[in-house]
Design brief:
Elements (H helix, E strand, L loop, with lengths): L5 E7 L12 E6 L5 H9 L17 E6 L3 E5 L10 H17 L3 E9 L6 H11 L5 E6 L6 H17 L6 E3 L8 H12 L3
Parallel strand pairs: 2-4, 2-5, 5-6, 6-7
Antiparallel strand pairs: 1-3, 3-4
The protein binds guanosine-5'-triphosphate and magnesium ion.
Magnesium ion binds next to helix 1.
Length: 197
């Protein structure tokens, strides 16, 4: 894998704050604590580029990272974090929906789902939402290092099943930020959508 340069650009809290340079964007979406920031760090091989935390709800902004001066990784706020006041949750949900629907530079969405559990209701909400659009979409099953190979296969099958039920056909990739599992595959997919170097 070629060396990757990554730089934090800014935290965005509203539509007006989104970058205007037109560079392609790859968004990471998923429940709070599912491992978005960790996977992003694994992709760019930096331990602490994106802030990770044992406390859910750490990522409260759209965090923009410039990758190789060519495109952005966008770490979206985790959803489903009960301690965030409802009014604020709704505000984020609206902003995320608008972003997924209307954001022109958006080239790809990576939806992270915990490999240890079947997709939760909010995950199915994201799947249903993505079905309505035409942005390329991939499911990364996270924390695969916590499962045996057998359990990983089961988890992927369960997720496939949920997707098929919804009429979706998208790649499902078991990943681990700890072992680097799946990182290569994710890169291949990402590069195919943002263009080679
Ligand atoms: N075993 C294991 N633990 C992981 C992995 N990825 C993340 N974790 C742990 O899961 C917790 C949450 O990780 P984060 O990357 O901060 O999760 P997040 O989705 O960014 O969370 P929010 O920013 O709160 O939405 C941390 O304690 C991580 O160490 C993984 O691949 N394997
Ligand atoms: Mg995070």
């Amino acid at each position: 894998m070629p060396h990757t340069e990554a730089e934090f650009i800014k935290g965005v809290v509203d539509w007006a704050g989104l970058p205007r340079d037109g560079r392609p964007e790859v968004a990471f979406i998923g429940r709070s604590n599912v491992g978005k920031s960790s996977l992003l760090n694994a992709l760019v091989r930096r331990k602490n580029l994106a802030r990770t935390s044992k406390k859910p709800g750490k990522t409260r902004e759209f965090n923009y990272y410039l990758i190789d001066n060519r495109f952005y990784f966008v770490d979206l706020p985790g959803f489903g974090f009960a301690k965030v006041p409802k009014s604020q949750r709704d505000r984020w949900a609206q902003l995320i929906e608008r972003y997924l629907n209307d954001r022109l530079p958006l080239r790809a969405v990576i939806h992270l789902v915990d490999s240890r559990h079947p997709p939760m209701e909010q995950d199915e909400d994201v799947m249903a939402f993505m079905r309505g659009g035409d942005v390329p979409y991939l499911i990364a099953l996270t924390k695969a290092d916590k499962l045996s190979n057998n359990q990983q296969a089961q988890s992927a099958a369960q997720t496939d099943e949920a997707l098929v039920q919804m009429g979706l056909e998208v790649p499902v990739v078991p990943t681990s930020a700890h072992t680097g599992q799946g990182v290569r595959e994710l890169w291949q997919w990402i590069q195919s959508l943002v263009g080679e170097k």
